[in-house]
Write a structure and sequence with these properties.
5-stranded antiparallel sheet, Rossmann fold, 7-stranded parallel sheet, Alpha-Beta Plaits, alpha/beta, 421 residues, 3 domains, globular
Length: 421
């Protein structure tokens, strides 16, 4: 591929597919609009799929360029929502002026309040027996400064910023497609298992057994959440619970919302929880996921779309979470696919057809849409006799080097699940 075309591909991916979002591509004559974090991530021009499918690999230089473009997009997002988000001590985007604390005893609360910090709420995560507190940073103090000060005052506590997680994919097709475009691989086994989704809200076209909001204005229908849920429905998942962690909150998708969503889905009896969001490591989210896993919940998560040079994606990188990457229609790894500390499986992540918030069938691209397809196969295995992991491994089609590898994990699941008929 010629250099100009490669550069265009990288620019498109960074602007539209990386977890720091841009709702429109920055191409000549087309403006860039940066919506709130909880807004629609997609509206990706069909030119993107055509361009990136021409690329075979990212060189080190191009991967670094993708990360640079991602950082610029993060900056635009921050400037668009200064009242709601700011950077934490290590540069991650987080809810402005608030910290999360676990393991803080009563004397510690008194020390913080004497230093000007204010306890906003003490919360318990439903179903997981995890307590944490939301603490406001004093006026005039940045979030990063607050983190450092709290660490000095109460070193025994675990304190972190309420970091943001963003969606890992977007819409490809600008026009609706016929219903025949979505192929189902429904199984009775999958329909017996309760499956949970942590994402944005969903449209009325996808029936659910439970829906709860964990952000201001939630539940609120979103295209991304609707696409994820409709993919599960198309694969025979009829017992579906959805936790909306975005709503209309500019700081939606934060760690505390995700941790509470994990608890609610666990308490609701979900045995599989799929997450198509990407963010930095969070002690609170990790603790919630570990507790849910201890109750028999299998968590499935997308590796994101920041490219192979990106930092490890979370929650995909937490221990025992099934990390899912995406492949295109020819079984090639998505060149924008991110990475995790481990990789379990691949699933279709391009040319995937699903519903938007209005119920229209559209095409989508990103590891966001590979995760629910893999989750459906895990649910089917859980609903069948025998060890579920062995059943999933037996179903996975080996790609790349023989055996498990760092590009496809243990193989491709649901290879033809969401292809156009």
């Amino acid at each position: 591929m010629r250099g100009g075309t490669k550069l265009l591909a990288v620019s498109l991916m960074a602007g539209a597919l990386a977890w720091p979002l841009a709702a429109q591509l920055q191409v000549p004559g087309v403006p860039v609009r940066v919506p709130p974090v909880g807004g629609v991530l997609g509206e990706v021009n069909g030119q993107l799929e055509q361009t990136v499918e021409q690329a075979s690999a990212l060189t080190g230089r191009e991967a670094r360029r993708l990360l640079q473009l991602r950082e610029r997009t993060l900056g635009r997002l921050l400037r668009a929502n200064p009242q709601a988000i700011e950077r934490d001590a290590v540069g991650n985007l987080a809810r402005r002026g608030e910290l999360l604390a676990t393991g803080l005893a009563e004397p510690g609360f008194a020390v913080l309040e004497q230093a000007g910090f204010r306890v906003l709420a003490r919360e318990q995560i439903e179903g997981l027996d995890i307590a944490f507190a939301r603490i406001a940073v004093p006026a005039g103090m940045t979030l990063a400064e607050g983190q450092g000060r709290v660490a000095e005052l109460v070193p025994e506590a675990e304190v972190e910023a309420d970091t943001l997680h963003l969606e890992a994919g977007g819409q490809m097709a600008p026009r609706p497609l016929p219903l025949a475009a979505m192929a189902a691989a429904a199984t009775a086994a999958a329909s017996n298992v309760k499956v949970g989704v942590i994402d944005g809200g969903i449209g009325k076209a996808v029936p659910v057994s439970g829906l709860r909001g964990f952000a201001a204005g939630a539940p609120r229908a979103s295209d991304h959440g609707s696409a994820v849920a409709s993919l599960l429905q198309a694969q025979g998942i009829t017992r579906l619970w959805v936790a909306d962690v975005y709503g209309s909150d500019p700081a939606g998708g934060n760690a505390s919302a995700i941790a509470k969503a994990v608890g609610w889905l666990t308490a609701s009896g979900c045995k599989v929880v799929t997450v198509s969001l990407v963010g930095p490591r969070s002690a609170l989210v990790e603790r919630a996921i570990t507790a849910a896993q201890g109750k028999g919940v299998v968590v499935v998560a997308a590796v994101g779309n920041d490219g192979p040079a990106a930092p490890p994606a979370f929650p995909a990188s937490y221990a025992d979470v099934l990390a899912i990457t995406g492949v295109d229609r020819k079984g090639r790894a998505l060149i924008e696919a991110g990475r995790a500390l481990h990789l379990d499986y691949a699933a279709p992540g391009a040319g995937v057809f699903a519903r938007d918030a209005t119920g229209k069938i559209k095409a989508w691209r990103g590891t966001s849409f590979a995760a629910p397809l893999a989750a459906a196969r895990v649910a089917a295995a859980l609903g069948s006799a025998g060890a579920w992991r062995a059943r999933v491994d037996a179903e996975a089609r080996d790609l790349g080097p023989r055996g498990a590898d760092k590009t496809y994990g243990r193989g491709l699941l649901c290879g033809s699940c969401a292809q156009r008929k």
